[in-house]
């Protein structure tokens, strides 16, 4: 690896020609496959030196202590108390500095359900937030997915509006416009939907967004008294947008259940320490899987390990949600 960058030089191309050649002091070329490997090596070295995995602080799920989640340079540290979180963050900060990396305090946030007014790491104050974006998804303090669903639907609307010129074009067939909508709009809306806990009110918003897209595609004004069923009969969708989300969730569920041992499976099936509040309980992700399939967890496990039965179940559920039968 060292020989790849020994005595390397570069030049910058400008409007006035190329600059003089200069030596590359540090870093790798843009797009070099070594970049993620080197960063992961550094990150793993820092975590091991900090002793994160052996630390007592963390959240107990299914009998396992989980205190950090990492994806590239996005690192999440978790703890049950503010003191444990300060200790873990301080160790990560110290070991990062020793490895030549600096913890960006402006991009470091703390989210807690405890009444904490201020949070410091050494002399640096960390902002306390009720919501933040992690890997493109909005995470909030109460674990409610409704805000993320609203945010994704709004992003889908913006993407649909940006296609106005194409939608109004008479040179593009309706079939092509439908395929473009499914390719360039719906994936923006469904990003991360595998982890959503969708409520009945959220389903209505998703259905309303889909019909808004089809009406805009057909250029149906809001003043025209045309039923939703007639719009769907003209579009002829294979399934509703909400049904495609269910398909993605069930496929992800089966993928996780077939694993012998994984962190995702333990989080999905494991019990979190503590007691649930009195009164009506919040709907959990696994509850939506049971609700969509009308099966128990034991039956779902059997279906997940039999791929043909699993595919058949998903196909039947998706086909039953075309909304053309009602």
TrEMBL record:
Pfam families from the UniProt entry: RVT_1
User: Which PANTHER family does the record match to this protein?
Assistant: REVERSE TRANSCRIPTASE DOMAIN-CONTAINING PROTEIN, RIBONUCLEASE H
Species for this entry: Rotaria socialis
Reverse transcriptase domain mapped to chain residues:
1-139
Q: What is this protein called?
A: Reverse transcriptase domain-containing protein
PROSITE patterns, alphabetically? RT_POL
InterPro entries linked to this entry: DNA/RNA_pol_sf, Rev_trsase/Diguanyl_cyclase, RT_dom
């Amino acid at each position: 690896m060292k020989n790849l960058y020994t005595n390397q030089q570069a030049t910058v191309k400008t409007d006035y020609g190329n600059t003089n050649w200069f030596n590359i002091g540090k870093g790798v070329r843009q797009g070099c496959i070594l970049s993620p490997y080197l960063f992961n090596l550094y990150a793993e070295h820092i975590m091991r030196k900090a002793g994160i995995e052996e630390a007592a602080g963390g959240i107990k799920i299914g009998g396992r202590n989980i205190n950090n989640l990492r994806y590239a340079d996005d690192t999440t540290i978790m703890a049950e108390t503010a003191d444990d979180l300060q200790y873990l963050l301080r160790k990560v900060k110290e070991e990062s500095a020793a490895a030549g990396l600096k913890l960006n305090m402006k991009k470091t946030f703390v989210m807690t359900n405890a009444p904490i007014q201020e949070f410091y790491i050494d002399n640096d104050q960390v902002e306390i937030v009720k919501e933040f974006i992690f890997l493109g998804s909005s995470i909030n303090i109460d674990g409610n997915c409704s805000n993320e669903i609203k945010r994704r639907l709004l992003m889908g609307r913006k993407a649909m509006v940006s296609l106005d010129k194409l939608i109004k074009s008479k040179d593009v067939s309706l079939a092509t416009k439908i395929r473009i909508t499914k390719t360039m709009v719906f994936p923006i809306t469904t990003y991360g939907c595998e982890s959503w806990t969708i409520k009945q009110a959220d389903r209505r918003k998703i259905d309303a967004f889909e019909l808004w897209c089809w009406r805009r595609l057909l250029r149906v004004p809001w003043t025209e008294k045309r039923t939703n069923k007639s719009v769907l009969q003209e579009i002829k969708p294979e399934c509703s947008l909400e049904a495609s989300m269910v398909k993605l969730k069930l496929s992800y569920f089966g993928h996780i259940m077939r694993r012998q041992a994984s962190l995702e499976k333990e989080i999905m099936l494991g019990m979190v320490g503590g007691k649930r509040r009195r009164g009506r309980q919040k709907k959990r992700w696994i509850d939506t899987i049971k609700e969509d399939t009308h099966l128990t967890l034991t039956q779902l496990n059997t279906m997940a390990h039999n791929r043909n039965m699993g595919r058949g179940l998903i196909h039947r559920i998706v086909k039953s949600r075309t909304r053309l039968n009602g």
